[in-house]
Design goal:
Structural class: alpha/beta
Distance between the termini: 32 Å
Largest sheet: 7 strands, mixed
Strand order of the largest sheet: 1-7-6-2-5-3-4
Number of helices: 6
Number of strands: 7
Number of domains: 1
Order of helices and strands: HEEHEHEHEHEEH
Shape: globular
């Protein structure tokens, strides 16, 4: 993996200080516990607003976690593309099947340390059901899923428990979604 904002000296320290200050001024608190694993899929839910990304990055800096995140490929076009990659972005072509799960699994297999953030809804819009890619990546790579969250009502962000997949997607999904039942996104009716 290439160097990102999370492992660029001086800039990392600056953005960590800025993130801690920004979270405090905005009245946000973070959970005490955070994942100590070297490799995991971080699901970020609920995903209802562009603000989710800003808070995700701020919380990642606060915890000193180097996160990679998946975003629609249009975010990586033009002069902003290299900046988005430097911020940990992985472009995703959502309009066609591209073997994305296997590509991410291959990254996990080739990496000693890797945290990939995947919003299970796949969009900020309201969805009837979550996309299963996050689950299949974690299960195929043999890595746990960290239940990351942003609760805008409580102004609390951070991490729930680590979840280890069993291979029974339906049963595991019910257990994962149960964790999020009382968490409120920025736009609650979208979740």
């Amino acid at each position: 993996m290439s160097r990102t904002i999370f492992d660029t000296p001086v800039i990392n320290s600056f953005f960590r200080a800025l993130s801690l200050l920004g979270l405090k001024l905005a009245g946000w608190k973070t959970t005490e516990e955070y994942p100590k694993a070297k490799k995991y899929v971080l699901i970020a839910a609920p995903h209802t607003s562009n603000w989710d990304f800003i808070f995700l990055i701020a919380i990642a800096f606060a915890y000193r976690i180097k996160v990679s995140w998946m975003g629609k490929s249009s975010l990586f076009k033009g002069p902003i593309g290299p900046v988005m990659k430097w911020m940990g972005g992985i472009p995703v072509e959502r309009s066609k099947s591209t073997g994305l799960v296997q590509q991410v699994v291959d990254r996990f297999n080739a990496s000693e340390n890797l945290v990939v953030t995947i919003p299970p809804e796949g969009t900020r819009s309201k969805v009837q059901e979550w996309k299963s890619g996050f689950y299949h990546v974690a299960h195929s790579a043999g890595v746990p899923i960290s239940l990351g969250f942003l609760d805008f009502k409580k102004k609390l962000g951070g991490f729930g428990p680590m979840f280890h997949t069993t291979g029974d997607y339906e049963a595991d999904l019910k257990e994962i979604q149960a964790f999020y039942k009382d968490i409120s996104g920025k736009v609650p009716h979208q979740f």
